[in-house]
Please model this.
Amino acid sequence: MSSTPGPEAPTETPDDVTKVTKADTVPDQQGTAATAGTDSDTGTGSSASTSSRDDLVREGEVAADFLETLLDIADLDGDLEVDVEGDRAAVAIVDSEDGAAPRTLVGPSGSVLEALQELTRLAVQADTGERSRLMLDVAGHRAGRRSALVEQARSAIAEVQSSGERRELDPMTAFERKVVHDEVLAAGLSSSSEGAEPSRFVVIQPAD
Model:
């Protein structure tokens, strides 16, 4: 398994969702609402938002070392790609010459991926002493899920624009909520996250 740097990704709006190739899973303050792009699901306002690129690269390297050891112990195939996306480190387990990335690490509805991401963040924090908001992807799961969410968000946005009424979406993970928040923000509407995990959901509000 090898750890190779990927191309730098464009800057994105912070929190509650994110772009992928690296990890995300910080629980939010349950039951609180949050505006688009600033949901506490991903820790907006934390010191990570001001981390230098060097610090984020370091996070990614520590995470890649941890994951490589984990893959070796479990005798699983997969290469590691390290990148920086916006204000987060990003790590992806991808197919290698020896075999495909272990999709068992995604799990039903991404549950195993979310747990592995949190475990990786804790490993990074233990090494650096700083809270990590790193994003983890396995076998392109988050990238594929993002595409589907973008379509779902755009459909809901069109409904809100047409009806002038708010729309509540189904419960989503923090990563999924941020994807929706970003689309809502780009459309000129507002959104918030409501409810408590694991039933926290996005509400899209019509324009004022």
Remarks:
- The two ends are 52 Å apart (CA to CA).
- Residues 141-163 form the longest helix (23 residues).
